[in-house]
Specification:
Length: 160
């Protein structure tokens, strides 16, 4: 169990992930807040749920809660760098659903309701699944401390 947790949290100390985590986290939190709370001009759970049901994502309320929760909580996780890999995986799946269920028929460009923004967020999320939280992440602090207190190091894990 410790090994699986360590793998989920492991990361390096570079700034690349930080440069991806912060803007993506802000964007995801804002979009999740629109869906969940009606913030920033959003429609809240009720309105978003009705819209999702109207495009065939049923049950709409549950789908809105799932997407909004993934974006809001996943965005917070990215911002602080806690469970970055699992959060990014959930966000990547959320973006795949958004792209295929909503935006793909409209083509690439955002100006036509296309998938370019979703694709950019999907790419960032996938990159974070592979890289982890990086510098200034809680994941980094946990794994750095864990190496000292006896959990397996990255070198040991990669040799297995």
């Amino acid at each position: 169990m410790k090994t699986a947790l360590y793998r989920a949290l492991s990361t390096n100390n570079d700034f690349t992930s930080l440069a991806l985590r912060i803007p993506a986290g802000i964007i995801f939190v804002a979009h999740g807040a629109q869906k969940l709370f009606g913030s920033f001009g959003g429609y809240g759970l009720e309105g978003t749920g009705q819209w999702m049901a109207s495009i065939g994502l049923e049950p709409g309320y549950l789908m809105a809660a799932g997407a909004g929760g993934a974006e809001f909580l996943g965005g917070i996780a990215l911002l602080i760098g806690l469970l970055t890999r699992p959060a990014a995986l959930v966000l990547a799946i959320t973006m795949l659903v958004a792209i295929f269920a909503v935006h793909l028929p409209n083509g690439l460009f955002m100006s036509n309701g296309g998938y370019e923004f979703g694709l950019a967020l999907l790419s960032i999320s996938v990159a974070l699944v592979f890289s982890g939280g990086g510098a200034f992440s809680i994941d980094r602090q946990i794994t750095a401390h864990s190496r000292i207190s006896g959990l397996k190091s990255t070198e040991t894990l990669s040799a297995q």
